[in-house]
Every structure is written in structure tokens, then in C-alpha cells.
């Protein structure tokens, strides 16, 4: 049982380059999330998808786009990377957050933008 | 939106001592409060959670307390062990709402 799978694990970009972070879950969860983790800042929500076909902005959406490709997959795209986007990115999923169901996290992507 | 504050940012205790981490929240409608543990280089994982209809919950050496009136909740770890060393995050969410808001994290160091 893989849970939440993220790719890649590490990435180095130059300013202005674009890339897509991939996330897939095999738990048949409805909700999926993208968080970024910065030192001293905790986990901040970038975008989330409450169900297949819907996406909504979180706390820090600027510079990012997302796609909920199907129930399993939720991708995060950086169109023009900036050094401020250097961070660790976590994808997560939850069965029913409205009832307080717990988040399952992927293993993270460490992104450096030079 | 919700604002979750967490203290302290770092905590160092001797093995066997107790550790307490505190969080406050701003949205009185929040009713679900999970705690996540993140070991170095690993993903966050849920260790305990509490809903607003109870004041305390225990799971072996870990307990969480909630004070709805004061809008704060705390994580208590007793008889700490070196493997408890990690970063701990509190979070808050509310019914019919798909977002979790996290605190800034507490780095706990348990010295053997």
C-alpha cells in the first residue's frame, strides 16, 4: 500500500524555469492538498482540491497552478520559478476533512531555485 | 481565516522528563485539532487528535488537552525518550471546511 506518492524527491531549477510536481494517492481519498514547508513557518497551504474536478486557493497560491487530473492525481505547477519558491513541498490527502479525517502526507519534494 | 500560534519553537528536555507544547487558535468555529510529528527528513504523521466535544485525550505517553473558552490546546509527552526527538506541529480545522491550518512547529530535543 503506497499511500501518497510524490515525484520528484529533489529538484534544482534556475529562475524562470517551469516544472510540475506530481502527486498520486491510492487510498480513494476525496480531498488532496499541496503544502510548502519553510523553516520557522510550519506548513502553509498552497492549493487544495475537495473533490475531483474542484480546486481552491489556500494561504499562499501566488506563483502556482494546480490540476486535479482525476481522483488519484493532483499536480502542482510552477510556471516561472523564483528563488522565493525554494522550499520543501508536501502533497497530502484526506478521506473526509469535514469530519476531521487525518491528513496523509507524501514524502516531500525538496526544491531549490537558483 | 484561522490563525494558529505554537510555542515554544524549540524545546530541550532530559530523557524521562515531560514536555509540553502549546497552541492557540483564533477561529472559535474550529472543532478539530490534530498533532503531527515529523522526524528529520521524513513526512509529518498524525500522532493524536482531539475534537471540541472533549477536553482531554490520552494515548499511552501522549495526551492532548483542549480549552475551548481560552481557544488553546496543548500536547503533553510524559517520560520522554530519545525517539521522541522531532518537530511537532499542531493544526486546527472546522466542520464543513476543507482546510487545515498549521502552527509553525516545535523542535523537541530529548537528551539521553
Question: What would a concise description of this structure say?
Answer:
Chain A has 114 residues and is mostly beta strands. Helix content of chain A is 0%, strand content 51%.
Task: Please outline the helices and strands.
The complex is a heterodimer of chains A (114) and B (112).
Chain A: E1 4-7, E2 10-13, E3 19-25, E4 31-38, E5 42-49, E6 56-57, E7 64-68, E8 74-78, E9 87-94, E10 104-105, E11 109-113
Parallel strand pairs in A: 2-11
Antiparallel strand pairs in A: 1-3, 3-8, 4-5, 4-9, 5-6, 7-8, 9-10, 9-11
Chain B: E1 4-7, E2 10-14, E3 19-25, E4 32-38, E5 45-51, E6 56-59, E7 62-67, E8 72-77, E9 86-92, E10 101-102, E11 106-111
Parallel strand pairs in B: 2-11
Antiparallel strand pairs in B: 1-3, 3-8, 4-5, 4-9, 6-7, 7-8, 9-10, 9-11
Distance from first to last alpha carbon of chain A: 36 Å
Number of helices of chain A: 0
Low-confidence stretches of chain A: none
Q: What's the count of strands of chain A? A: 11
Radius of gyration of chain A: 13 Å
Q: Could you tell me the mean pLDDT of chain B?
A: 93
Write the element-wise H/E pattern of chain B from the N-terminal end onward.
Answer: EEEEEEEEEEE
Instruction: Find the structural class of chain B using helix and strand composition.
Output: mainly beta
Main pleated sheet of chain B: 6 strands, mixed
State the end-to-end CA separation of chain B.
Answer: 41 Å
Strand elements of chain B, count: 11
Biggest β-sheet of chain A, characterized? 7 strands, mixed
Helix content of chain A: under 10%
Largest interface: A-B, 25 and 28 residues
Shape of chain A: globular
Strand content of chain A: over 45%
Unreliable spans of chain B are none
Structural class of chain A: mainly beta
Run of helices and strands of chain A: EEEEEEEEEEE
Q: Keywords, please?
A:
heterodimer; A: 114 residues; mainly beta; 7-stranded mixed sheet; 4-stranded antiparallel sheet; 0% helix; globular; B: 112 residues; 5-stranded antiparallel sheet
Amino acid at each position: 500500500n503506497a499511500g501518497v506518492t510524490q515525484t520528484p524527491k529533489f529538484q534544482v531549477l534556475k529562475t524562470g524555469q517551469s516544472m510540475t510536481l506530481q502527486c498520486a494517492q491510492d487510498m480513494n481519498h476525496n480531498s488532496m492538498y499541496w503544502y510548502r514547508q519553510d523553516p520557522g513557518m510550519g506548513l502553509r497551504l498552497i492549493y487544495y482540491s475537495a473533490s475531483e474536478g474542484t480546486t481552491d486557493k489556500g494561504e499562499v497560491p501566488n506563483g502556482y497552478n494546480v490540476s486535479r487530473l482525476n481522483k488519484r492525481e493532483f499536480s502542482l505547477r510552477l510556471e516561472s520559478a523564483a528563488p522565493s519558491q525554494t522550499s520543501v513541498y508536501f502533497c497530502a490527502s484526506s478521506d473526509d476533512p469535514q469530519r476531521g479525517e487525518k491528513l496523509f502526507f507524501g514524502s516531500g519534494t525538496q526544491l531549490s531555485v537558483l | 481565516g484561522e490563525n494558529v500560534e505554537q510555542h515554544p519553537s524549540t524545546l530541550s528536555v532530559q530523557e524521562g522528563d515531560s514536555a509540553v507544547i502549546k497552541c492557540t487558535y483564533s477561529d472559535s468555529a474550529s472543532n478539530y485539532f490534530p498533532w503531527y510529528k515529523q522526524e528529520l527528513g521524513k513526512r509529518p504523521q498524525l500522532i493524536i487528535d482531539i475534537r471540541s466535544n472533549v477536553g482531554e485525550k490520552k494515548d499511552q505517553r501522549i495526551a492532548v488537552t483542549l480549552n475551548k473558552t481560552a481557544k488553546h490546546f496543548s500536547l503533553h509527552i510524559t517520560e520522554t525518550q530519545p525517539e521522541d526527538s522531532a518537530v511537532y506541529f499542531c493544526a486546527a480545522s472546522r466542520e464543513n471546511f476543507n482546510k487545515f491550518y498549521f502552527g509553525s512547529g516545535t523542535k523537541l530535543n530529548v537528551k539521553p
